[in-house]
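Subject: sequence -> structure tokens, single chain

Hey, anyone have a minute? Need the predicted structure for the following. Not urgent.
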Amino acid sequence: MSTILVRYGEIALKGRNRGQFEQQLQRNLKGALQNLDATIIRHRGRFSVHCPDAALQKVTMRLGRIFGLVSFSPVYETVHDIEAIKAAAAAIVKELPSGNKTFKIMARRSNKDYPYNSPELNQILGAHLLQCYPDLTVQLDDPSSILEVEIGYQNTYLYLERIPGPGGLPVGSSGRALLLLSGGIDSPVAGWLAMKRGLSFEAVHFHSFPLTSKRSQEKVVDLCRKLMLYGHNIPLHEVSVTKIQEALRKNCPADLSVILLRRMMLRLAEKLCELRKLKVLVTGENLGQVASQTLDSIDVISKATRMLILRPLISFDKLEITAIAEKIDTYETSILPYEDCCTIFVPASPVTKPKLAVIERFEQNLDLDLLLEEALETLETQIIK
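Reply:
Had a minute. Here:
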């Protein structure tokens, strides 16, 4: 069996609520590692994962996508006896590549009742390794290998590497949201950042079939599959806004069409949140990126709903967003050239400083309740697992 020591960060600062965050993280660990015959054990300030040796690679891959983890290490686990620890240290160092000739020991004690303090452990284990391997040299600054030793409350752990985790908070610890998922680069990244802050979410995609192809909807399903790997199964709701767009073309100026359409999307999202008991909306809006995301446009669009709207990307530039998209493997899917409902009727000169009074006057030309009702009748939901 292999053992992996799992560390969390922000959770340790949660005071009296810390236990709730630890329990959510433990549930997420169990969900991520299901079918791998893994056992998760909760310690003080740590988790340990025990799995068959053959599953170690898959386990470490999945741990690298669990929000709340700051790092984890495959470890050699042994008892507290100093001779057992020395033997374990010698066995680990023996497996080092031949070029690793310098090392240092970094010992720490969670269990303060242990008879040796950290400096003493460093000296004892360092001397033992030099005796076992005369070609090694202690080097405190920039050694080729660092052997870390943790004296826990039950056992001792020794390891040579810390694999970084994604950090953040456990998904599900901050509530449930509705992500407006367009199929472009930005909204999947916004969803990923929302999960990093502990939100679980359902997604809604507004489409214009048959004005757009089914491929644009399939792209959104693929994006949900990418995001699902970082948190949970994702309910994906698909709603047609074709009739809304046709009504806007007939009754409203073209240069206001994007603003009006986005206000209708927020109204539909609010009704969907009421049905699904979701508390907040998450969008991929980014200040100044396009005409509908100027300060005036965002303000006018937001006034269509009473919902709280989170915009994780509001201050990011495009290079930063693209870098995250590449990191989480959504970029190549997002740039597939399939039009969505927001791109097929983009006016040549959209308004960048819309006035709420003007927008509301043109909305009086529309039967808003009927359009919303007809759009919701097209609602289709699937669970992306």
